[in-house]
Amino acid sequence: MKYDVADVKLAPGGKKRILWADNDMPVLAAIRERFARTKPLKGMTISACLHVTAETANLMRTLKAGGANAVLCASNPLSTQDDVAASLTKDFGIPTFAIRGENRATYYKHLNAALDHKPTVTFDDGADLVNELHIKRKKDAGRIVASMEETTTGVIRLRAMAREGKLKFPVIAVNDAKSKHLFDNRYGTGQSTVDGIIRATDYLLAGSNVVVAGYGWCGRGFAMRARGMGAIVIITEVDAIKALEAAMDGFQVMPMAQAAKVGDLFVTLTGNKHVLRPEHFRAMKHRATVANSGHFDVEIDIPGLKKMSKKVNRGVRNHVDEYVIGRSKSIYLLGEGRLINLAAAEGHPACVMDMSFATQALQAEYVLKHAGKLEIAVHAVPLEIEEQVCRLKLRTMSIAVDKLTPEQVEYLASSGEGT
């Protein structure tokens, strides 16, 4: 079995971590038990480019239990848990290509190792596998039945490809499932971003001016958590509707040029490029701290920051680099501008990833059943999958919901009854 991990001897610790996370992923466990009995993914070859974490490991175990021939590579150089990568390879027989801190050349070597597996289905966290198939490995794209995309950033890229007529196979926007973005993005990103920042800096949020760039579901989640810990939260937005919503939710809203002058901590969660730029760095206070919780490391203009700095002090603290501007101003960059919740912490809690990865697993079953029937486009997750995941999750939480009476069903389906 081919694989590339930091040290396979780390496997015992990784297995403990995987099984600990599994305790808090009952929905995925129930699906894995059914998959093991019915083998609905038999004959499917999967290449997954995802964050190599304990939660992801349990998704990969589920796919394998369903009969899939699956491999995994990292979707971000700083999100890999090396002990998990080792355990997936050694204990669970799933070839893994991921090393924490890998450079760009190794990252793309691992992407191509996953594609050498000759997948019929791909799982992506940022659309890098899909991008590689469309640019450098076009011949392999014809084999793909469908791809699943788990991030806002990836869905943006894929919808652009679809609009331009460049998309070569169907893609399921798993990210846009309500059971994913309402929970994973809001509660998962919200909590894990706070976790990463505090682990990296030992920062006290209470009383601090925290600037949140973007009020999508990830931005909402982080803003809620920061306010809950006593921060004075400022939102920056380009979308008028989201900006108005943020204001109605009780947050200050202003342009980044204005926020840059008052912020103590800046966090980008937009999926866009160069949200924080040199003109913002110039306006920031001494010892302002900047972090990113969007998928790619382009939200902060790091080359621009480096160019305007007279000195860069690497590793002044774990996951903290100091950029010295002029005579006396320091800007602290966290996690090299990569996903701070994974660069400095462990990513989303397992219980929220339980829903996202349950959706992924059921979606794999769906695309195999509908192989050859899906239009080449970016598709939504079917409502029945969403409902199944939420029903299972409620059951594991011992929560029951009401059912419509026959009279209520008839009333909702009719138009004749008025005031």
Automatic annotation (TrEMBL):
Physiological role: May play a key role in the regulation of the intracellular concentration of adenosylhomocysteine.
InterPro entries associated with the record: Adenosylhomocyst_ase-like_sf (IPR042172), Adenosylhomocysteinase-like (IPR000043), Ado_hCys_hydrolase_NAD-bd (IPR015878), NAD(P)-bd_dom_sf (IPR036291), S-Ado-L-homoCys_hydrolase_CS (IPR020082)
GO cellular component labels: cytosol
SUPFAM superfamilies recorded: Formate/glycerate dehydrogenase catalytic domain-like, NAD(P)-binding Rossmann-fold domains
Keyword line: Cytoplasm, Hydrolase, NAD, One-carbon metabolism
Pathway(s) per entry: Amino-acid biosynthesis; L-homocysteine biosynthesis; L-homocysteine from S-adenosyl-L-homocysteine: step 1/1
Subcellular location as annotated: Cytoplasm
Binding sites annotated in the UniProt record for substrate: T53, D125, E150, K180, D184
Enzyme Commission (EC) number: 3.13.2.1
Highest rank taxon of the organism: Bacteria
EC class: hydrolase
Known cofactor(s): NAD(+)
Binding residue positions for NAD(+): 151-153, 185, 214-221, 237, 272, 293-295, 341, 348
Reactions performed catalytically: S-adenosyl-L-homocysteine + H2O = L-homocysteine + adenosine
Protein name stated in the entry: Adenosylhomocysteinase
Alphabetized GO MF terms: adenosylhomocysteinase activity
